[in-house]
Specification:
The structure holds two protein chains of two kinds. By secondary structure, chain A is an all-alpha fold. Chain A has nine helices and no strands. Chain B is α/β, with parallel strands linked by helices. The chains are: A mainly alpha, B alpha/beta.
């Protein structure tokens, strides 16, 4: 196992230039798409709708401004959307369109290394985009306490928790039409109903329970409680363990899917 | 032949199945260091499956396979570190530049950035793409992409180069340029394994080859040996013009049967396999037959190939 991990680190280093080059090529486009949408939500919901909500009293939200209520949720949602975006089409491209994964495994790299490289790049994308977004949130006064910056590692953990399973799913698809399902029935409902905009206790019971299954809810709950200073250590631990479980199981599934597709 | 020849690829009873389908059904072969070895066969013969197993990216289903003296099941990465692979489909990154495709690939083998840059420049020179170094791969012609793929497979200075249908889809100029590059590699001591269904390519490049059909090896030898063993020195082609029907061809074949070791009837012509084509022509005329056109040519690998794998289309 130790040997395997050393190999993976060395092989990760060998893939670094590839991902760096890809990023240099695409960073401008990703900057715009990664920030524009969350910025619009921050402005429209946090400030526009927020002024309306705030003037009617925010007792149900725990007495904080609506902007401060939704900002940690928007941060987590952004992480989810970037991670899903990067684990769908790029993975299919590597397997089927451009086939760059196939060229990678003709070298000393192994399918597991290719997975770690891809996930590493997604981690980088999630982290950098969310870091910049967090700066903007802070400038708008979206964080109630400095502990809110811990929303960044939470966003990273969430990104990893969803990237693994989605990448694994991408390996079993014949074409990209399956991704529309991910967005329609996964990403969008999770975005709307995981507590980013209102407490999930407002939902009918069965939807509330669906929200608890979604990894996004756990990230929203954790980063919000950090920002608002309402952390319950036991619940926070539960959130982290749940997200870690998604990450570990998802990565395992992705390695299995990549191996099955690349080595046959 | 040296007595001390070294087997880089040692194959005994090798099998590969996908579910119920057996793509490779037990083959034996050795590829010796320094030679150019060819796999010929129609589509679905098992060539590409065999190549993938030799490339250590496809586990074997049965038999023995040793590559560079190592077992691909346990030493895959070490084997692949010493192989160059030019796959059937180009797997270049089309949005990166020509040069980046080489430098990044070198990194996968653990070369330093400086080594990668140096290798990339040498290889671009070698495949005549120096002027295209900064161009995006998207903008290259098919022939240029193949040359770049071959350059990429050489980035790690491999002991053994695997080329899966290297010139499929290229125009004659591009093919000849590639053959020239491959010949120079062979001169430089690189062992080549090539799959192709172009007979002229096999005759040009391969010291030794196997003809595969239905997952098995149908024949093995040098191009000259295969022609000697499975065809005749020459072939006389007789055309009787468009008015002569296939039924008449059968009748005509009966009249010349004894003039050749083998007579093959095609819709538009008769093929007489014989060691002396001119003598067969004279004999045909002596018998009062008057073909509209006569061609005497040397046997080629194509004759061997069609004899061994048949003229029926395999799909």
């Amino acid at each position: 196992m130790a040997v395997h991990m050393t190999g993976a680190v060395e092989n990760g280093r060998r893939m670094f230039d590839y991902w760096l080059t890809v990023y240099k090529r695409t960073w401008k486009g990703t900057m715009i798409s990664s920030f524009l949408l969350p910025m619009l939500y921050l402005a429209a919901m946090g400030i526009g709708l927020g002024s309306f909500v705030d003037s009617n009293g925010t007792g149900a939200l725990g007495g904080v401004s609506y902007l401060q209520f939704i900002a940690p949720g928007l941060l987590a949602s952004t992480a989810m959307q970037i991670a899903v975006g990067e684990a769908t089409y790029p993975v299919m491209s590597g397997l089927k369109w451009q086939k760059f994964y196939h060229s990678m495994i003709a070298t000393p790299l192994r399918p597991a290394d290719v997975v770690y490289g891809q996930l590493g790049f997604i981690a980088f994308r999630v982290f950098t985009s969310c870091a910049v977004f967090l700066v903007i949130i802070t400038l708008f006064g979206g964080l109630k306490s400095p502990l809110g910056v811990l929303g960044l590692p939470v966003a990273l953990l969430l990104g990893m928790a969803v990237a693994g399973p989605i990448a694994a799913y991408a390996t079993v698809l014949d074409n990209d039409s399956g991704f529309a399902m991910v967005f329609r029935f996964g990403v969008v409902p999770a975005f709307l109903f995981s507590g980013a905009f209102f407490p999930v206790s407002q939902l009918p019971d069965w939807i509330e329970w669906l929200a608890y299954v979604s990894p996004l809810w756990h990230a929203v709950d954790l980063s919000r409680s950090l920002s608002l200073g309402t952390v319950n250590p036991l619940l926070a631990l539960g959130n982290i363990v749940y997200l870690l479980a998604w990450f570990l199981v998802g990565t395992r599934l992705a390695v299995r899917g990549f191996t099955r597709k690349l080595i046959g | 032949m040296s007595e001390q020849r070294e087997s880089l690829v040692h194959v005994r009873g090798l099998r590969k199945s996908y579910g119920d389908f057996e793509a490779v059904r037990g083959i034996d072969l050795d590829v010796w260091r320094g030679e150019a070895f060819g796999f010929l066969g129609p589509n679905g013969a098992g060539k590409s499956s065999t190549m993938r197993m030799i490339g250590a990216v496809s586990p074997i289903s049965g038999g023995t396979l040793e590559i560079l003296g190592l077992d691909p099941a346990t030493d895959g990465p070490s084997i692949r570190a010493r192989l160059g692979v030019c796959p059937q489909d180009d797997t270049l990154d089309t949005e990166l530049s020509v040069r980046e495709n080489l430098t990044i690939y070198g990194r996968y083998f653990g070369l330093s950035r400086a080594e990668c840059r140096e290798r990339a420049d040498e290889l671009l020179e070698f495949v005549a793409l120096t002027e295209k170094a900064k161009v995006k791969v998207d903008e290259l012609s098919g022939g240029m992409k193949r040359r770049l793929t071959i350059a990429r497979s050489l980035v790690s200075k491999p002991d053994l180069l695997l080329l899966d249908e290297p010139t499929t889809g290229l125009d004659p100029q591009a093919r000849h340029l590639l053959w020239d590059k491959l010949f120079r590699l062979k001169q430089a001591g690189v062992t080549l394994i090539i799959t192709t269904h172009y007979m002229d390519e096999a005759e040009q490049l391969c010291d030794r080859l196997v003809v595969m059909d239905g997952g098995l090896i149908a024949a093995e030898g040098s191009p000259a040996e295969l022609i000697r063993d499975y065809s005749t020195r020459e072939v006389t082609e007789l055309r009787f013009g468009p008015d002569v029907m296939l039924a008449d061809h059968d009748a005509l074949a009966g009249k010349v049967e004894d003039l050749a070791q083998r007579v093959e009837v095609l819709p538009d012509r008769l093929l007489l396999y014989t060691d002396d084509g001119e003598r067969a022509v004279a004999a045909v005329h002596e018998r009062g037959l008057e073909p509209a056109a006569v061609l005497v040519r040397r046997s080629t690998l194509e004759d061997v190939f069609l004899r061994l794998t048949g003229r029926t289309l395999v799909d």
